[in-house]
Design a protein that fits this description.
The chain is α/β, with parallel strands linked by helices and about 210 residues long. It is built from five helices and eight strands. It has helices spanning about 5-15, 45-50, 90-100, 115-125, 200-214, and strands spanning about 25-30, 35, 60-65, 75-80, 105-110, 135, 165, 170-175. Strand 4, helix 3 (about 90-100) and strand 5 (about 105-110) form a beta-alpha-beta unit. Helix 2 crosses helix 5 (about 200-214).
Length: about 210
Amino acid sequence: MKPLSILLFFLFLSGAATAKEGIVQCANLIYGPGKTSTCFSDEFLSAVQRETSIVTDRRFKPVKLDSDDLFLYPFAIMTGEGDFSLSPKERTNLARYLSEGGFLLASAGCSNSEWDRAFRREIKAILKVDELAQISGGHAVYSTVYRIDDLGLAKSEGRGHLEGIEQDGRLVLIYSADGLNNTANAPGCCCCGGNELTNSLQLNVNILAYALLH
């Protein structure tokens, strides 16, 4: 792990730190008809603060995707289960958010296939892309804080994977169809038979640090 002692300096230059005295706050999205991202562990926010120089608010902030409040946050979480469709305002906000420097971590709750299909459909329509691209093992997101060489799965053999979307050479979105919920630190939530990535805590730390540094 490399120390990130100059990180906050870069955050202030880039405008990524929020107005709350330089503390990085993360949005937990409320979207669609009754969809929320509440069943997702925020433990990685504490881990980021322990392992780096990033100062974080250790709890997510619930934010409606169609609200202007979204643009106060450099990093957002979107997860859930079941089919959904976004409203025109939500689609417009998400497109603008990503194009103006925001970063989205998306995760299919409990590896839910219906949510996976809905998310892919929405993102393709919003960002005008054919497919999400697989993020190769040599990408910096696997070594920003922790060195991650393998993406183990909770309930099957084999290796999981991350996908993403770049805009103008900048990675703006990382997605896991397997699931990035650190369920061991999510009271009241389980993976419900899903195949979550076993090192999701470390991955989420890396993803947040990477999003703020790039």
